[in-house]
Specification:
Elements (H helix, E strand, L loop, with lengths): L4 E7 L22 H17 L4 E7 L8 H18 L2 E6 L11 H8 L2 E5 L14 H17 L3 E7 L2 H18 L4 E5 L9 H4 L5 H19 L5 E3 L1 H8 L18 E4 L4 E3 L2 H6 L6 E2 L6 H7 L1 H13 L10 H4 L4 H8 L9 H22 L1
Parallel strand pairs: 1-2, 1-8, 2-3, 4-5, 5-6, 6-7
Antiparallel strand pairs: 8-9, 9-10
Helix pairs in contact: 1-2, 5-7, 7-14, 8-14
The structure holds iron/sulfur cluster (3 copies).
Length: 375
């Protein structure tokens, strides 16, 4: 994590007001106190000083981040701003929320702390996201109402959507219509499912046909290129892949980073430190340590055996077939948690390899057409 900036996934609580079937988090009741936040900040700023890092992006999430009240975030924001000013650092904030607890009381802090922008999640169709004891349709109805309220208040709402079997059955066209034309969402990201955390029947049945999944991605990318691209609709990861293949600056998702251990860490509401949100709550053996119990974050990270495995992964992967892949410099073997949740080892490539290769090739061709057309 040496460089000018780094990212922190910070779980303000390990609790959630939803009960999604595929949730990878081992949810507990803890909430982060302002006193613990102050102690975490001290160590983070020491770490940034030691590694000449000027800028920090904090991605607030849970559990469900909105289970702490807006006043708590206002106090946290002041605390962080003061600490950053004292140390000469820049800090920006993002909020990931399921929106179930959203009300207009949140608007001032969303404007002040999060730049009037939030990120939320919904799959379409929704098969697995639910409020406890109720069906997915009830969740979707609440979520749609809250999204419309937030948009009416001028808040920019980004959506993360995990593809499921129903998504493949309705197809890319209907998926686009729902998010863009019906809900007016202009910035969304497509994610692939993985059976993280404790297993259950839903997670065991989440495997998708990889050819169908690849076809869905390519068709959605084509719809975006034809209808949305010029109208400023953003769909991750297509937008950044197109940037990459047209030789523009590209901010690719962590799954294709050189090594995600260089880019971010996660800290949960108990102070546990791990690679990202799934690891920190659900795989205790892969935690790097606890920031509230250590003297120095630098030392905690340097001494962590679990973290060393993340650094060994790229070396192990090039001993396999990734070394012969045309897209190795782009993909780097994919996401460790997707590999681990399927194969119980970090030292395997991402199980979505075939999807990635197909999508890379498709967007590389579309980018080449664009470049030719521009001549
Ligand atoms: S997936 Fe997110 S919203 Fe759903 S239960 Fe898990 S933490 Fe809560
Ligand atoms: S394990 Fe996967 S999801 Fe987590 S930070 Fe690394 S690449 Fe991202
Ligand atoms: S696309 Fe597949 S083979 Fe190529 S680098 Fe990624 S995981 Fe490895």
């Amino acid at each position: 994590m040496i460089g000018n900036s780094f990212s922190l996934v910070l779980l303000s609580t390990n609790q959630c007001n939803a009960a999604c079937d595929y949730c990878f988090e081992d949810k507990t009741a803890e909430r982060l106190s302002l006193e613990h936040l102050r102690r975490i900040l001290d160590k983070l700023m020491d770490y940034m000083d030691a590694n000449q890092i000027d800028a920090l992006s904090i991605h607030w999430q849970g559990g469900e981040a909105m289970l702490l009240p807006p006043q708590w975030y206002q106090q946290a924001f002041k605390l962080i701003r003061n600490a950053a000013e004292t140390r000469g650092k820049r800090v920006d904030h993002g909020l990931q929320t399921n929106m179930l607890a959203y009300s207009s009381k949140w608007n001032p802090v969303i404007a002040e702390m999060f730049g009037n922008s939030i990120s939320t999640s919904l799959d379409y169709p929704n098969l697995h996201r639910r409020v406890p004891g109720r069906d997915p349709e009830s969740y979707t109805a609440i979520w749609e109402r809250k999204v419309r309220m937030a948009r009416a208040a001028g808040i920019d709402v980004k959506v993360i959507s995990v593809v499921n079997q129903g998504t493949l059955e309705i197809g890319a066209e209907r998926f686009w219509d729902y998010f863009v034309d019906e809900l007016g969402v202009f910035d969304f990201q497509i994610n692939t499912p993985f059976p993280g955390g404790e297993t259950n029947e839903v997670k065991q049945g989440m495997t998708l046909d990889i050819e169908e999944l690849a076809r869905f991605h390519c068709e959605l990318a084509d719809i975006w290129l034809e209808r949305g691209h010029g109208d400023d609709v953003r769909i991750g990861p297509f937008d950044e892949l197109l940037n990459y293949f047209t030789h523009r600056d590209a901010f690719l998702p962590c799954i294709w980073g050189q090594n995600c251990a260089d880019e971010l860490v996660a800290i949960d509401a108990r102070g546990n430190v791990a690679q990202c949100d799934c690891w920190v709550t659900s795989y205790p053996d892969f935690r790097f340590g606890n920031i509230l119990e250590c003297d120095s974050l630098t030392e905690l990270l340097d001494k962590s055996e679990a973290r060393r495995h993340f650094y060994e992964r790229p070396i192990k992967l090039v001993q396999g077939d990734c070394i012969r892949c045309d897209y190795l410099a782009l993909c780097h073997g994919g996401c460790p948690v997707r590999a681990y949740s399927v194969n119980r080892t970090l030292f395997e490539k991402d199980p979505y390899c075939h999807l990635y290769k197909t999508l890379f090739r498709h967007l590389e061709n579309r980018a080449a057409q664009q470049l030719m057309g521009a001549r």
